[in-house]
Amino acid sequence: MNFEKIIKQLSTCIAGFIMFALAAGVYLNIKGFGFDANGNIALINSAHAAEPELGEPRTLAPNVVIPGGRSLGSQSAPVTIYEYSSLGCTHCAYFHLDTLPLLEKSYIKQGKVRLVFSSFPLDKSSLKAAMLAACMPNDKYFDFINLLFEHQRSWGLAFNTEKALAQYAEQTGMSQDKAYACMQDKQMAQELVDRRQRAIQTIKIQGTPTFVIATRDSREVIFGAPTFEELKTIIDKKLKQG
Fold first, then answer.
1. Architecture of 58-240 per CATH?
2. Are 172 and 147 in contact, with CB atoms under 8 Å apart?
3. Rounded to whole angstroms, how far apart are CA atoms 124 and 160?
């Protein structure tokens, strides 16, 4: 094999590698990822990866102001659960589709617990989903959140995320024009990102989902997705403490 042929093959390999790297970079950026200084894949803007297991709980001062969101249940409930979830997080979906219905039946509808949901987007797709959900009226908000969790893989892996999300919004009665306008609202995007940043600074969130179990006198942070039984133990203890 002569020298010119070797150079030609090397050039072809290098060009192929560059094209692959560029394509990978575009794909990762679409999904909200990028490359760090060492060339490793990293989440953009210090987003956090999902955590499957419960982390060690942490206590906040009772006077800490907790960033909030839309809520289920009575404002006068003795226990408030603040939930920070990404609509693209599988463990968050499990909580909403399997654990939350049990929590609603046993505590929320009984006036004992109020749940406050706050979107904590991990990537661009979940940010678009959170922006669209924010445009929903209160009476459709949680139904739409559940719809997105149910079809998480469908819109999360779609090449055109906005188109996929707009189709789900149509099922709730929202026009496609309004859906696209919501997902292109820069002010809304900034508000969601700012709220997420405040939650990071205030609660030191490490992953999604993260919960704050709050009463008049206490604030307990739980990192990870609790089962209903685990939540029941915590809630019953809080209720007994008054």
1. 3-Layer(aba) Sandwich (3.40)
2. yes
3. 12
Examine residue 52 and say whether the peptide bond preceding it is cis (omega within 30 degrees of 0).
no
Residue by residue, pLDDT tens for the chain (242 residues) are 554 554 445 444 444 433 333 333 433 344 443 444 444 333 444 444 444 456 567 788 777 778 778 999 999 999 999 999 999 999 999 999 999 999 999 999 999 999 999 999 999 999 999 999 999 999 999 999 999 999 999 999 999 999 999 999 999 999 999 999 999 999 999 999 988 888 888 888 878 999 999 998 889 999 999 999 999 999 999 999 86
- For the chain, the 3-state helix, strand and coil shares in percent, each to the nearest 5, are 55, 15, 30
Q: What is the DSSP letter of 31?
A: T
pTM greater than the 0.90 cutoff = no
For residue 91, the SS3 value is helix
CB atoms within 10 A of CB 66: 18
Rounded to 10°, the helix 161-170/124-134 angle is 30
Sequence letter at residue 20: F
**Alpha-carbon distance 79 to 235, whole Å?**
7
First vs last C-alpha separation in the chain: 84
How far is the C-alpha of 16 from the C-alpha of 139, rounded, in Å? 52
Q: Are 123 and 28 in contact (CB under 8 A)?
A: no
Q: How many helices (H) and strands (E) does the chain have?
A: 10, 8
Parse the chain into domains and list their residue ranges: 3-44, 58-240
Q: Is 50 left (phi over 0), alpha (psi -120 to 50) or beta?
A: beta
